[in-house]
């Protein structure tokens, strides 16, 4: 592994939020099948057997695709968020999304949108995340989501399918979506885990963004060593599962594999407050950059900056624009490693 001059890789960096690059961006559509109303609160100590008195809660519209769309907007880009919603939690979710000023298309479902609960333990700084199961979908409901996406995507654009699938939705749903995207000349991006990930990879996608944990589960190995990470990401490229694999490694940064080889980028050193939304922020910046026409190496720098900006934000808060710009400038000094 030979560190190289960062200027060699990718175009000169201008700020991700540079307004002049938004107008020429390709269309980006995100899909959230299993959104969650994120409830965040804090308490002094988490223990069992007694009531835990918590602070007033904050509510955010969470779930992979919705988060990605929200970050893209914060960074000055445009994305259409397609998501499902049902019940009174779904009504609240819609209001929160509309308040963000993002163009949305809602697929109404019978069951209630789930809630996720995040509790910060003030005495230790630990975070407890309770992730609930989503509502059961009927076949009509999930097929309706495919129809809405099919009507919305435009040739040459990006479709980002992110997050888990709720009960009732078949494991090959993202694979079906990938096929639909390919037929429409749209680049399908998938961020999920387990069987839904395996099926999507078997179908073939443009970009997949597993975390180390997710790819390790997929290949049945720990992926502890740098070499095993490169090998696993590169194998997906060789097998035709994806054109790009962005393997995120938490505090160790990320690896990007494609047919041109693999590159690794560390993170800037930051004080971790909450890792919620790091992967979504990474993916949002990565795809926004590609949609704006930047090379993959530049997109990777922006993505690592956005992921790291998310971890310095409290609770379920996503990255904020100023932090991304500042960290992107710091990352410009870090060496990309070609493997
Ligand atoms: N502790 C950290 N310090 C600095 N940056 C971080 C840290 N954790 C995450 N990041 C940034 O966020 C990106 C995504 O993080 P990570 O690999 O944990 O993905 P994730 O999708 O959030 O994980 P998962 O889906 O398994 O919960 C990393 O590539 C990095 O840029
Ligand atoms: Mg993730």
Number of domain units: 1
- Kindly report the CATH topology: UDP-N-acetylmuramoyl-L-alanine:D-glutamate ligase
Shape by Cα distribution: globular
Helicity, in percent? 25-40%
Q: How does this structure look, described?
A:
It is a single chain. The chain has a single domain, classed as Ribokinase (UDP-N-acetylmuramoyl-L-alanine:D-glutamate ligase), CATH 3.40.1190. With 339 residues, the chain is α/β, with parallel strands linked by helices. 47% of the residues are buried. The chain contains 10 helices and 15 strands. The strands form 2 sheets. Strands 1-15-14-13-12-11-10-9-2-5-6 form an 11-stranded mixed sheet, with helices on both faces. Strand 7 and strand 8 form a beta hairpin. Helix 8 runs antiparallel to helix 9. The structure holds adenosine-5'-triphosphate and magnesium ion.
Helix-strand blueprint:
Elements: E1 2-3, E2 28-32, E3 36-43, E4 58-62, H1 64-74, E5 80-85, H2 87-99, E6 104-108, E7 114-121, E8 126-131, H3 139-152, E9 158-162, H4 173-183, E10 187-191, H5 194-203, E11 205-208, H6 212-219, H7 226-238, E12 242-248, E13 254-258, E14 261-265, H8 278-291, H9 296-311, H10 321-331, E15 337-338
Parallel strand pairs: 2-5, 2-9, 3-7, 5-6, 9-10, 10-11, 11-12
Antiparallel strand pairs: 1-15, 3-4, 7-8, 12-13, 13-14, 14-15
Helix pairs in contact: 1-8, 3-4, 4-5, 8-9, 9-10
The chain binds adenosine-5'-triphosphate and magnesium ion (MG).
The site of magnesium ion (MG) has 3 residues, from loops.
Question: Could you write a compact summary of the structure shown?
Answer:
By secondary structure, this protein is of the alpha/beta class. The protein contains 10 helices and 15 strands.
